[in-house]
Amino acid sequence: MVRSMQGKHPNYYEALLQLRDVSPEIIEFAENEIDRVKLLVSKQKELKMGMDYYCSDSSLTRALGKRLQDKFGGELKVTATLHTKKDNKELYRTTVLFREAQFKKGDEVKYLGEIYLVRSMDGKIFLQNLNTGKKIHLKYKEMSLIKKVN
Is the pLDDT reported for residue 1 higher than 50? Predict the structure, then answer.
């Protein structure tokens, strides 16, 4: 169901989708998904590090962030901040940050001084040590510790 924007300020938004350090392919995917689900965007900003989309629906924006992570692998952070109180009800704005991983499934990476093969990037990053064969699962918040090997 698409929310009506009738009676809302032209710059109204409930959620901010932040795409950081992403490829043009991810921006294209996000924009196609925004069109597909008819998510209203009141404003978009192009930044040096990515794009910001000011979206009308918090739950659709969160779902889009999850689809980006499932399809491309990367860090997804969802936060909510108190925006205002209306009729004794607290209204929050959601921020959905997606940062693309600098490596993908099949790449050789260095983690804590050892070389691993990226086996999968679903809910977590699944690595296999190339020397010992040992397998480990890492959360996306540890993504900055993993460097692609050339």
Answer: no
